[in-house]
Amino acid sequence: MVEVKEIRPGVAIVIFNKDHEVLLQKRTDVNLWGIPSGHVEPGETVKNAAIREVFEETGLQVEILRLIGVYSDPSSQVFQYPDGRVTHFITCCFQAEVVGGELTLTSTETLDLQYFPCNRLPEDILKMHPLWLADALTPTKQSFIR
Question: Which domains occur in the chain, in start order?
Fold first, then answer.
C-alpha cells in the first residue's frame, strides 16, 4: 500500500430521479464517473458540505433525506490522485432529493452529468461508489459504518 500523508473528511450524495435512476458525475480530476462528492471545508458541517458540493458540481439544490453511512475502510477509502497525492477519506454518504436548481455543467470539476439505471452503471466508475449505491438501495433505517 502506498504511504498516506493526509486524511480528509468527505461527503458523497446519492440522488435518485423519479424513475429511480442515480445521478452520476464524470469528474475532471480522474476522468471517472461517480456519485457527486467532495471535501468538508473548515468551519462547515458535513450536511452543509453535502448541500454545497451538490450545488457547485451540478447546479441542483437538495435537501438531505438520510445518512446512508460513514466509510473509512482504507481498502476502499485511500485514494491516489493522478498527480500522486494519496488521501485517506472519511466519507459521510447521504441520500438527498432535488428541491430546486437546474442540472448544469458549469463546474470545472464536472465533465458530464447523467442519470443511470442502478443496475447499469458505467464501467469507468470510482471503485468505492458502487458500494455506497448498494447501501443506499438497502431497505434499512440504520446507517452503515464501513
Answer: 6-145 (3.90.79.10)
- Report residue 3 CA to chain centroid gap: 24
88 CB burial (10 A radius; 0-12, 13-18, 19+): middle
* Sequential DSSP letters for 37-103: EEEPPTT--HHHHHHHHHHHHHSEEEEEEEEEEEE--HHHHEEE-TTS-EEEEEEEEEEEEEEEE--
Closest CA to 33 of 133, 138, 142: 133
Cell 438520510 -> residue: 66
pLDDT tens-digit map of 87-146: 999 999 999 999 999 999 888 989 999 999 999 999 999 988 999 999 999 988 899 999
pTM here? 0.92
Whether residue 35 contacts residue 133, with contact meaning beta carbons closer than 8 Å, is answered with yes
